[in-house]
# Entry
Amino acid sequence: MDIVDKGQFTHLDYSFFVVVFFVSGAIGLYYAFKARKTASTIEDFLLGGRNMSIFPVIASLIATSVSGSSIVGLAAEVYTYGTHTWMFAPALFVIPLVVPTIFLPIFAELKLTSSFKYFELRFNRRVRLLASFIFLFTGLIFLPVTVYVPALSFQRVTGVNTYVTIAILSLLCASYTAIGGFKAVLWTDVVQLALMIVACIIVSVIGTRAVGGLGNVFRVADRGGRIVIANMDMNKRSSLLAYLISSTAINTFQFGLNQTILQRFLSLPSQKKMTISAWMLVSVFGMILCFSPFLGIIVYANYETCDPMKAGKIQSIDQILPHFIQEKASLFLGFNGIFIAGVFSAALSTTSSYLNAMSGVIFEDFVSNWFPNINQNIANRTMKIIVIILGILQIFLVFFIEKMGMIMQMTNQCMALNTAALLTLFVLGAVLPKANSAGAQAGALTAIVSVLTLIIGSINNEPEPTLPFRTDGCSDSLTGASNSTIDHFPHSSSDQEDIFWLFRISFMYFGFIGTFLGISIGYLTSLLTGGNTIEDQRLLAPFLRTKALTEEEVNLRIKE
# Structure
């Protein structure tokens, strides 16, 4: 049973959407108008001319990293499995120690707009196309998810058809991304991040007051076993070892080398500002990750004695946060709208970042190779057309994605595959001078195959048992019984399961295992096929360089 009380969504609630959409569109039109006065280049569209200030870049880095589905998903995760998600935060600090030291100097000195151009300079064009294809494939899987989950939340509280919402959101996002370019994406991210933060704070305050204060929230959460710090069991999602090991690889790529994030770093005018931005990103985003479990335990505190899923009020645990918002909507006008608008803002920021990045990759890695003499104006128009096409394609891909089931799990698996393959190539290229093109291709394919093997091997595994849910506070008419505690999945184990422990470990390990195997096989293959000699030392991490070519020689190599 999925109850939708459309009467709770007022004109004031709808007005928040009008404001979000109007501001986003207005920013796009503003930068489109400004661009008409000057000659626009590819770097303007993709990197804002490499002269952006730190504030919008940091805001955009954070907004891009937080999707609408992650806000809803993290609350559901904590509600079901406890506060272990805070452990993502400490692992973030590998980013400013590694990325600005090893990778960013390479891209900054070579003046690259596409990170995949690096693979052609370091290895060959086949490696570049392989990397581009991996990024675009996983991006096409991820794009529809960014709008699908918020649209489901919107349908729950308004009754508006999911596909109508997805179409409007996708076309709006594609439009302001296309006409305004990178600067529009950056400044809309600033506005959208502010709305996200306001929405989460308001929800937290309302939920805390409803259960009698902050002390009661933690007492109830502790009573229900939701206060989970860490444990050493490698098979648990709250495993400290899983976070420390796997997050090193995942964070390095997703928050440092992913094309959507890398573009923001490269939009800054100096390496010093890039380093400052990296430290600011991990500091602010780390605080957000530490705060995210708080939202989940607030929801749990409000439903301690009557789990809405067992009561038949929701069909999926991912609906727990939207359901909570809907029930509290009567507290003051606009409460519903503020939260849903915040979730939509997160979706818009992530979607626009991927649209901009993917259009750049398609143009730089494919179109420009077919038409090498294309001028800057036509190049800009081409990328804008690509953005619109991707926005339309996003709408149709939703029909495919929703039929696959287990949307968040599938997304995480694709991200693990993406991380393993591309981080393998970056490490082989920047850190291992002997790595060659044969080793790079072998390494990337090994990473892909190993992750796919782990995914396939884990398909039939039983889900990890949830923490207990109570229903003793529900009426018998809702639950059919008055049970005090209910576990969704019983825990079971066998000798056969212990033998195949590798397939039962958390998805968090998949990216790390794939990366480790990819780098190992890639480097071994390189040594067996003659190794490599790097002429342009700027292709290596600064601490590995023995000499540097002149700027004229580097520019000549890039043109070639």
Summary: The longest helix spans residues 162-210. The CA atoms of residues 28 and 180 lie 4 Å apart.
